[in-house]
Amino acid sequence: MNGSYAIPVKGDLTNSRERIHTIFKGEEPDRVGYWDADFFADTIQRWRQEGLPTAVDCKGGVHNPLLNVAGLTHFGMDIYITQPDCTPKYDVIEYETSDDWTIIKDEYGTTTKWPTKKSVTPRYLEPVVKSPQDFLDKVEPLLDPADMRRVCSPHYPFKQELEETVKRMQKEFFVAVAMPGPFAYSMLLCGGLASTLRFMVKHQNFMTHMFSSIATFLARIGEGYLECGVDGLWVFDDQGWNKGPFYSPKVYAKLLKPAHTIICDSFKRKSLPRILHSDGNVEPFIPDFIDSGFNGLQPLQIKAGMDLARLKEKYGKELTLMGGIDTDILGSGDFEAIRNEVRSKIAIGGRGGGYIVTCDGPVPPTISLQSYECFVRTIMDSGSYRQSQHKS
Description:
Layout: H1 16-24, E1 33-34, H2 41-49, E2 58-60, E3 64-67, H3 69-75, E4 79-82, E5 93-97, E6 101-105, E7 111-115, E8 123-126, H4 132-139, H5 159-169, E9 174-180, H6 182-190, H7 193-202, H8 204-227, E10 232-236, E11 240-241, E12 244-245, H9 249-269, E13 274-277, H10 286-292, E14 296-298, H11 308-315, E15 320-322, H12 327-330, H13 335-349, E16 355-357, H14 369-382
Parallel strand pairs: 1-16, 4-9, 9-10, 10-13, 13-14, 14-15, 15-16
Antiparallel strand pairs: 2-3, 5-6, 6-7, 7-8, 11-12
């Protein structure tokens, strides 16, 4: 395979939308699902030199490195993500810029320093929330779902256009609305992980209020997209790192679980998929994730100890598992090892349905285009439920 890689055949029994819905029902479609659109911008730059078609790109460069529609179609992915503007809508102010970085006050009101050529986390310089009162005065009044600039407002001028976009995308993809969760949102306001954790220690009652306020706002936005016909919800809310969760299951149950329940509720009532993205080893939280309303978990990081076989055995009847493909193996350049990795994970996760193939983290620039093409081709060749090994 090379840069002239042909778009893979998605399967002749089911379209992508039907495929993903079937998987979340705990049934077997024509093949396992596939989504892997979270890329480092550096990866796209490398692949350009290796023959990637110019139409394939990230939606928003370094700051939004999800593949565009041309990329989803090129690789044969099953899920299209639509992202509402959930920010407080502060005016963006660019203070300084150079060839290497940009300092801006962002839509959340926080001043950040962004490297211009690398896909890395920004450095927080001046958070908008330095005290509980800052949130109450500077942010909470702006979390207005009735703002006419938001889709959930009855005065939103482009709602019909969004409905038409969703319907158009559903001809080729399962369409999910994706948004930050309350913990991720708080980090953007408070200046990162460490600052947010300090708030949770010092101001626990306030954080309960802040998480609930943010969740109520996000839930209303989600309901607006639900009215426009989306197929499911995807919440990006990292809860852990390689060594385990950021805090105890008791803290999660008290502070975050009620907020996650608020966000999931309207989609759960309609029996639509509710996916949680969380990096790190979050296995201790999984029973509470399920209880809060999530029925999908992604990306199952190998390096953090998220073992697909164990998770399938314990939670396969309650959760659709997404991920578990080791990016280190894809980055090795060993095609046989890549094929073995994909086949083994499909054999484990795909049994009885309930599995969507994705990498266990963003696709890094250590993976060549040829290696990634090998990965995709193996999914298409080995993921069919017509093959007897997936029935065992």
